[in-house]
C-alpha cells in the first residue's frame, strides 16, 4: 500500500532549504501563494549545514488557593526562536543578519567590490524578514516552517584551515497576523474520505462537513436543511456508483 502523506507514521528525516525575504506586513491568504512568493532563487538564503530548529517557550502563571484545592493557570507570555546555519553565504546574506547593515558596490582598477558596513545603532533599519524553511519529502509529504523575525544573536565568522565557515543565525519570531501567530507549521497531507457514507454517519456530521466531503467527491448538493442535503448526498453517491446498500440506518443493533 502506498504511503499516505501527513500520517502519524511519517518519519521526518533530513534538513531542508531556507528562504528569506523582507516582510512587508502580511502574507497571501493561501499558503500555495505564499510558497510562490517566497520560494524563488532570489530569496534562497544559502545552503544549510547543521539543519534548522524551531523552539517555542510559553510562560505560564499559576494561581491557587491557600489549601491548593483550586488551581488556575494563565498563559502570560510566549516566545519562539528559529535557528539555522548557512554553509554558503556572501555579503548580501550577512546584510540580512544585521539590522545596521549597509551594502554598496564599487568598481576600480578593473575590479568590482561589494562593500558591507555593519554597526551604528542609529542605522537600525527595523526590517523584519519572512523566513521559510522547506523540508522536502516526495513520498510522505513536504513540511514547511514559516516565521517572521530578524536575527537577534549576531553572528561569528571563523576562517579555519580545516573546516568551512558556517554562519549561524538565531531569529526571534514576531507575530505576523491579527491572531498573533508566531509559528506556522504546514504539511502536505492526503485528505482522507470514506469511499461511501451511510445515513447514520452523515447524520453524525455537521452540514459544513457534509458539504466539504461532497465538494471533494464532486457531488452537487440540493436542499436547504440537513436532512435534504443528506438525501441529496446519498443520491449523488448512488449515481456515482457508491451505492446505498449499507447507507440506510436499520435502527437495530
- Global structural class: alpha+beta
By DSSP (H or I, 4+ residues per run), the number of helices equals 5
H/E series, N to C? EHEEHEEEEEEHHH
Spatial separation of the terminal alpha carbons: 33 Å
Strand line-up of the largest beta sheet: 1-2-3-8-7-6
> Helical residue percent?
10-25%
* Number of β-strand runs: 9
Rg from C-alpha positions? Answer: 26 Å
**Mass-distribution shape:** extended
- Mean residue pLDDT: 88
State the major sheet. Answer: 6 strands, antiparallel, barrel
What share of the residues does DSSP label as strand, in percent? 25-35%
Overview in brief:
The chain is of the alpha+beta class. 17% of the residues lie in helices and 33% in strands.
Q: What does this molecule look like?
A:
Mean pLDDT is 88; it is low at 245-253. It is extended and about 80 Å long. It is built from 5 helices and 9 strands; from the N terminus they run βαββαββββββααα. Helix 4 packs parallel to helix 5. It has 253 residues and is of the alpha+beta class. The protein has a 6-stranded antiparallel barrel. Strands 4-5 form a two-stranded antiparallel ribbon. Helices cover 17% and strands 33% of the residues. The chain has helices at 31-38, 91-96, 199-203, 207-217, 226-239, and strands at residues 17-22, 44-64, 71-86, 102-108, 111-117, 129-135, 143-151, 167-173, 184-187.
Please write out the topology.
Blueprint: E1 17-22, H1 31-38, E2 44-64, E3 71-86, H2 91-96, E4 102-108, E5 111-117, E6 129-135, E7 143-151, E8 167-173, E9 184-187, H3 199-203, H4 207-217, H5 226-239
Antiparallel strand pairs: 1-2, 1-6, 2-3, 3-8, 4-5, 6-7, 7-8, 7-9
Helix pairs in contact: 4-5
